[in-house]
Design goal:
Radius of gyration: 15 Å
CATH architecture: 2-Layer Sandwich
CATH topology: Nucleotidyltransferase, domain 5
Helix content: 40-55%
CATH class: Alpha Beta
Number of helices: 5
Strand order of the largest sheet: 3-2-1-4-5
CATH superfamily: Ribonuclease H-like superfamily/Ribonuclease H
Oligomer: single chain
Number of strands: 5
Order of helices and strands: EEEHEHEHHH
Strand content: 15-25%
């Protein structure tokens, strides 16, 4: 299974593509961040997120998209902008034929670090270890997106193990 993880943000939207091999090992495919210019009108930033994610989907052919759910914003205006970016990401994935699943930040951190209140640096280090990378994934938004993808792979494996075989 190949998963596109997306970490939506107002200035950066991180993405990470992770595949689970037949032996259960995790393979890094791609990661990075879509940099959004805050001086651009919101509609231009949203269009950029759509276009970049569409290109990533076409290039890497994931089976599913996993997106972090919104949990906190400094103010209502920030929450609305974040929701708009998240909506565009969900629409782009769904429009590309991908199932879209959401995960709470606590679930992502628990799946990757084992502790729901882990610091960003701990998430980066565990992502590096799980994917056997030589350096910490950068920027932090990309590490978060990779963590979201890993969370989905772990969740899907757990659900498959719990499903009775016919």
């Amino acid at each position: 299974m190949r998963v596109l993880g997306i970490d939506c943000g107002g200035a950066f939207t991180g993405y990470g593509v992770v595949e689970q091999a037949g032996d259960g090992s995790l393979l890094w495919i791609a990661s990075g961040a879509i940099r959004l210019r805050t001086q651009d009108p919101l509609c231009v930033r949203l269009l950029r997120v759509h276009e970049e994610l569409r290109t990533i989907v076409l290039q890497h052919r994931p089976d599913v998209a996993a997106i972090e759910e919104i949990f906190y914003a400094a103010n209502v205006k920030s929450a609305l902008k974040l929701g708009e970016v998240r909506g565009v990401a969900m629409m782009t994935a769904a429009g590309s034929g991908l199932p879209v699943v959401g995960y709470a930040p606590l679930a992502v951190k628990s799946a990757v670090v084992g502790y729901g209140r882990a610091e960003k640096s701990q998430v980066q280090e565990m992502v590096r270890r799980l994917l056997k990378l030589t350096a910490l994934p950068q920027p932090a938004d990309a590490a978060d997106a990779l963590a979201i993808a890993i969370c989905h792979l772990h969740t899907a494996a757990t659900l498959a193990a719990m499903t009775p075989q016919t």
